């Protein structure tokens, strides 16, 4: 029996008959089934209006694969995927709206042979400034989360630097890298790492970054790119994390990408990681 058939056959199994280990295994199998089966309809599985994949003239970016992973999240009967930055062998930085409880959150990547790999989550930390209803209430939200992995990532991954120092200025260039869709009407275009150039459009902020395609060709974050890093143009350092996208002409993506600046959140990031390290000793 293949993974998908096994999951379908066990979805209705009484939870009281499952041991804790069986529950964990079933969750893993369901998430793996999502990876195997979701490609044709990834766009429909995600929240409309949140940042997703790179639409427009993005390019394939295999050189950035050591720095990013896919974040999978399950909530009830629905599932979604986002992008995350590897900031240590055991910690991934992503958007807060991309994660759930540790049992419902997994990190996904393909190994050197192209085989799918799922990594269990040991803990999840949500930035205290996150507001799930920020868009509706028109308030500022620090949409960031840290995911602690149950085991280190392979040595093929390289942690990216967390940017520090001066805040970005209008006109500054960034490289965004994400697994989102290349065409928001074609869900099967997601799941492939792509990158593109965006520039800071202003206004200057100590919390958020607004970025757009300098060529005005429609490139921007879309479904699956939530949590994607906006990297320094000259080195792999995360300046901001994509959290929301806006389109025009009836589209949801391609006109504007909103991201949360990480430099002002360095204290929270470092404090959380230090606490996790201390607890592991």
UniProtKB/TrEMBL annotation:
The chain crosses the membrane at residues 31-55. Keywords: Membrane, Transmembrane, Transmembrane helix. It comes from the Bacteria. GO terms for biological process: proteolysis. SMART domains: Tryp_SPc (SM00020). GO terms for molecular function: serine-type endopeptidase activity. Residues 54-274 form the Peptidase S1 domain. Pfam families: Trypsin. This is Trypsin. It comes from Methylocapsa palsarum. The lineage of its organism: Bacteria, Pseudomonadati, Pseudomonadota, Alphaproteobacteria, Hyphomicrobiales.
């Amino acid at each position: 029996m293949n993974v998908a058939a096994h999951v379908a056959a066990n979805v209705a199994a009484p939870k009281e008959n499952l041991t804790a280990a069986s529950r964990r295994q079933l969750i893993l199998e369901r998430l793996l089934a999502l990876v195997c089966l979701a490609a044709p309809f990834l766009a429909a599985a995600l929240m409309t209006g949140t940042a997703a994949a790179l639409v427009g003239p993005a390019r394939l970016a295999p050189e950035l694969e050591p720095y990013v992973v896919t974040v999978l999240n399950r909530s009830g009967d629905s599932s979604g995927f986002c992008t995350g930055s590897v900031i240590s062998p055991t910690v991934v930085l992503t958007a807060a709206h991309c994660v759930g409880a540790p049992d419902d959150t997994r990190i996904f990547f393909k190994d050197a042979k192209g085989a799918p790999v799922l990594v269990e989550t040991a803990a999840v930390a949500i930035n205290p400034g996150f507001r799930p209803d920020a868009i509706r209430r028109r308030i500022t939200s620090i949409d960031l989360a840290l995911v602690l992995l149950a085991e280190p990532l392979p040595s093929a991954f390289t942690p990216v630097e967390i940017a520090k120092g001066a805040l970005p200025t209008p006109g500054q260039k960034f490289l965004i890298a994400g697994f989102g869709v290349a065409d928001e009407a074609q869900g099967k275009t997601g799941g492939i790492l792509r990158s593109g150039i965006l520039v800071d459009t202003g206004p200057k902020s100590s919390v958020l970054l607004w970025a757009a395609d300098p060529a005005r060709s429609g490139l921007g974050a879309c479904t699956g790119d939530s949590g994607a890093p906006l990297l320094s143009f000259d080195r792999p350092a995360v300046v901001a994390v994509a959290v929301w996208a806006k389109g025009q002409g009836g589209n949801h993506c391609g006109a504007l990408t909103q991201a949360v600046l990480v430099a002002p959140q360095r204290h929270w990031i470092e404090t959380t990681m230090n606490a996790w390290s201390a607890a592991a000793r």
